């Protein structure tokens, strides 16, 4: 019993004047040697750690509020609160505090707070004046009462004394009785005084007064007093709104009368704070801190009471997902769940975790799947708000549910696809809902908040799921809207679709409505989709790369460079810029092969001499390529577009690209020229090579003679076999020989009989030594006889894979070879 009685929550007030929950534990009062006094200790119920250790100071002002709260300040701007589960525990600790300070436990505040300015004026206050003397509560004295209440607001001590006086004499209810009399008599002057009095009493910031003013029999009169603001010509009709317009709807009957009363009270007090009371000035912002706390603790209590009633919540979700439920009833249910989730934000983290897990177990996500697909805009908007609460709290919980769906349902009704459909079909001209949903999708696909466990990797599994089941739905408007025709003048007519039915979306296709104009709303939607795709390029690497390549997505995106909406053209350019920024050669080859710089350069030229954001963004793209020295892109741009760009001289970007290109070309040329001779010197070298045996001994002469005879025989056989064979040369071998000056020739052996199913035998061929001055490739044919064909290396730069290229010296020989062939055939070439 004692454990339950002393169970408390510890709260601290943050800089935004909001209470932060520090944890739940059990409180005790005991002597602490280190602090040299009786102290309040709170130990966490989870692990026994110390949540609070506070010495009960004789000069600290402790306040008892709402029978279960004790509030005090320990230092400047550091307020603490203990919220007890039971009133008995609060009373027990309050008695201990009063005992230490020598106060009567019947009081609700133990000390008068004194600041520095009050200390200076303390002597001016008579010590004998225990309470402020209140004038009699009469109509004729209302002005005097109003002046008194207004005058004490600047003095904390006098505010405390006035609060005690109002409580001790039951003064509040007497004042509210005068309000009814004044209203019956239409006494405007008295009603204006009562407005000042009630407003001043609220600014006293005392929970004990709030308990009286916000009770069921007083709160509507308090609202009535606040209707008669002297600054208004006609009074407001707040009571009429609260009683007639704002009707309490029980979507499921609430049997707990205390819970129902707490809901009514919280709504009305929130209305007073947000609607009736004027926005407090800088000097008044702390006057209503207790009112904020009053609302906060009420909400915590409401959520806790509802969460504990499992029967109530089960019935809510059962009706929410029942097909027989009327639309009006379902709308009320969705709005209730939305308010329920909004109230849950007041809970401490561990309690909020338990709250959302309770909702998940009750089936909140399947219910959202149903209501988000409804035609009712209010229901969809409320469902979107609920979905945002869930995603912000736990993206992993939503992803886990979504990945289980394909086993139970069709792709068309997947929760994420329903969300994407709602984003695409947002009827708001400003796409406010679409922007919100895009942010939620971005959170769900963000790898930064995906967990990796020992058994599975959430990132890999979810991204594979998303690209398989959802990406085609997201990109369907983009692919549909970039299907275009070109006239003879090169104009682009966009096929724009306003509504796309997710049920009609298949992998890579969409059912498209009739052509619509290139309007602002559609451009905004495409911009949102491009923003999400740009995020994917930056964070998903492999999955998005595969998708872009397979769908030729960048080409379709760059069609939007022709849009009349500059912001959309910039979004398309940003997408390409992010791809190039990765400096991935796969992307670079894709861009080069598709000639995808053309629409960008056309947009730059069409923009002319206008100095605007589009101009700067395009130039920045080429400047990045130049600074990062992306060689493949530089070569492509200069080779294909430099003539169109060389006239742009107000920046040095394109001249710089040309300079980079020339430098790389010279570097490659110098590198190859070290190993290559020109064609005229090659004839002399070959003649010297074949006649270089004058000084050889007789054995070498016989050997050379035999090789020359073999050469003549095998060359003919080689040319016959050449028609059915494809000669492959490894690029790495070529590069290796080029880098080794001492190895300027290599021998490639292949078996002539392999093409006929036989193995080559008796490799008797020997390669003649080529002088270092001539770089050549010697091919050794391993058949019964051998022959050697010398091929000079090309002057073009060596890439990853190269083909054999003969020099002009061999043209005559090639012509003779081609004449011998019965049908023309391309020279064997290596390609990537």
CATH architecture of the domain at 4-101: Roll
Tell me the total number of β-strands.
12
Shape: elongated
- Read across the widest sheet, the strand sequence of neighbours is 4-3-2-1-7-6-5
Low-confidence stretches: 113-129, 485-517, 693-708, 718-832
- Looking at CATH, the homologous superfamily of the domain at 4-101 is Pleckstrin-homology domain (PH domain)/Phosphotyrosine-binding domain (PTB)
* Secondary-structure content class: alpha+beta
Q: Give the integer mean of the pLDDT values.
A: 76
Organism: Sphaeramia orbicularis
GO molecular function: protein phosphatase activator activity
Coiled coil: 658-685
InterPro entries: ARM-type_fold (IPR016024), EVH1_PP4R3 (IPR055236), P4R3-like_central_dom (IPR006887), PH-like_dom_sf (IPR011993), PP4R3-like (IPR051137)
List keywords for this structure.
EVH1_PP4R3; PH-domain like; protein phosphatase activator activity; 12 strands; seven-stranded antiparallel beta sheet; disordered C terminus; ARM-type_fold; alpha+beta; PH-like_dom_sf; three-stranded mixed beta sheet
How would you describe what is shown here?
By secondary structure, the protein is α+β, with helices and mostly antiparallel strands. Among the domains are: 4-101, PH-domain like; 309-404, no CATH class. It is built from 35 helices and twelve strands. The model is unreliable at 113-129, 485-517, 693-708 and 718-832 (pLDDT under 50). Residues 5-101 form the PP4R3 EVH1-like domain.
